[in-house]
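Entry 12.
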Amino acid sequence: MYRQGNKTTQIDNDSKPIQLKRFRELNGISTKNFKSPYKISAASGIIEAHNSIYVVIDDAVELGVFPKPPSIGVGKLLPLFLENLPSDPKERKKRKPDLESLIFLGADYFPPAGAILALPSGSKSNRMRGSLISFLSNGETFTNPKEISFRSLYERLLGVFPDLNIEGVVQVGTTLKLFQRGNGPTTQNATIDISLSGAADTLKSGKDLNPDLIRRIRHHNLGKLHGVALAFTDAYSSPAMGTWFLAAAESSESTFLDGKYAGSVIGKLDSEGEVSFLKELASPYKPEGLWIDESSPEHFFYVVTDADDPDRIAEMYRGILPSKPSAR
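Predicted 3D structure (tokens):
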């Protein structure tokens, strides 16, 4: 049983876990050196923008850019910061900005063709800067991304979540909804609603994101899977599909140190922002990014994985979205 507030949500056990089919590896050719192949080992978020797929990497300072499925064409890297990270995995972990989630903000907020905002986790003091990449009218990205400070906003959230770890973000109407991953000692899963228009104005002005933009914080108790607490890892939302999320069970009481992966679920929030549905995923590795292909008749959803192994290439898996939930 899964309990949050006064409402109880039971995992859907009417059938076996949702099966996922391996779709592709996340590798390609680096734009820094066109002769040098690259591989993503820590995929952490995925979105679609202008008919391409963008993947945020939590141990890098670039985005992976790939053709939209069903294509499995070669990908490329798009720099987010003008710096390099150490090649040693331990030093890289210490210094990385820990970008964990992406959102595409449309032309209504960022003319002429929208922008991508990459959000940091906030789990350490050096993990509070993100990046904003705007699009030209032809859908091509600008070459100079803009660094964004989340420090003021995140320091306010640290007063609520001592183990702050922002892992997902979606747009729901005029609201930005952030997903706090409760994988620290306090196990606090939550959604944080922020004024979208206020955030967009702040981003365009070049100022720090203001904590006064916070509109609502809702705590969620996702329960356990195979005896291990579940915690948010990403989300997807649209007017047609409602708001879906991923949650993983990882046996670690730290937002910094990785733990043993025990399983994962896909779930849905209802129109009031409460969890209305949970279904186990047959995912061999921790899914940290979610995207739904609304143009596919089958309503395919895709997840990108992080095996917590720098030598293992992250992969993209595909599943069929459950048809049972109807709340939006």
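Annotation: The two ends are 22 Å apart (CA to CA). The mean pLDDT is 88.
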